[in-house]
Predict the 3D structure of the following.
Amino acid sequence: MSAYNKTLLTDLYQLTMMQGYFKSNSKEEVVFDMFYRRNPSGNGYAITCGLQQVIEYIKGLSFSYDDVEYLRSLGIFGEDFLDYLAGFHFTGSIYAIPEGTVVFPHEPLLKVVAPIMEAQLIETAILNIINHQSLIATKASRVCYAAGDGVMEFGLRRAQGPDAGVYGARAAVIGGCIGTSNVLTGAMFGVPILGTHAHSWVMSFPDQYTAFKTYADMYPNACILLVDTYDTLKSGVPDAIRVFKEMREAGIKSKRYGIRLDSGDLAYLSKKARKMLDEAGFPDAIISASSDLDEYLIDSLMTQGAKITSWGVGTNLITSADCPAFGGVYKLAAVKGEGDEEFKAKIKISENPAKVTNPGNKKIIRIYDKETGKIRADLICLDYEKYNENDDLKIFDPIDTWKKIKLEGGTYTLRELLVPIFRNGICVYESPTTMQIKEYCAQQLNTLWDESRRLVNPQKVYVDLSKPLYDLKQALLHEGTEE
């Protein structure tokens, strides 16, 4: 995929606001939080993803000659502002939760501390990148949870364009898929690429057996045969078994072999095929399935006793068909004027309580049960707050404040989630490989209680506010709603 300058990957109003700040000689430094309000697909959590692409975007952020000429042609930007853009580079700081981390609503996945013009410009691209990849990583984790293991991402031809296909496949692997059919994703990110053959392969030969035999001769160590082109049980599986027997007689020990089902009643066909393969002496043969799968269908097939060991999931995964948008937002949380020493907290008030923001320069502390390693709660607090694992910790629900709990010192551990990515315009974070992030994500998912992972009506993981942050929010709400 050819690289292109993403500096103009922004909404027009970001640039018009930038010019307004420039003309008014604004010197304000601001804090913006990127967060989301509701877990996708009715899930109990989300997985943050896309940070590596955000880093690449920030590193490459500069207006080329052609960019400036295009903006000049619009006739809405002054020459002094265009001169400023010609020398633009990002000088701020960015903090983020590492990719593959389990996250929850209202906590900042990414925090920008920068001059207001810079922070404003990068909003759209950050949302575009993190919203999409976090959505697909979360969807993949649901699909893989339903399947148990062996999910392959097969969605490139149904993705909404090349970028969505490539980066969506990367996110799906981080979320739990064992590999992807997308060759470009494999080349770019070092993830396993997997695949079988199409019905057209079988149809292009004089007969099905010849098609299977030819494929097995070429790919003996990755021989998954698509058996439903004509008649799955009467000819497809028997012809596959014939080929497997010939491979065995020739002394060929395949590393990965079996059949793929792409239509029909997958539960019934897989059980019948499993019996046929076992009776023929191939108990280790893989039975792979595709055919418009999602987590609900996979869960139902598992309940019905389907004998499927590998799953190819395409459209419903790469598009997150039941929930096509993640809903992340980017909101101003604090402002520091020229000459000020401290940030002044800002709050957005709405008639919809879910849209009232959490003010101030904040951090997130994750609280784990020391004995089990499972997440007890997340605590959003102000950046200056300090906590000690040996002290008793009182936390409460920020909405239903009567819901309180005291954690005794020594029974829990703490972890600060936001880590420095850029400091004063310099990247200070070394991104792990995609496969390292995948492994980390699997560890993260194991910190969830089983009740929070179920597909339907999962148990909520509480995200609480610290007492200082809660008091600040209430004071600003009172101040902003006074008559």
Residues 135 and 325 are 7 Å apart (CA to CA). The longest helix spans residues 123-147. The chain has a mean pLDDT of 96. The longest strand covers residues 329-336.
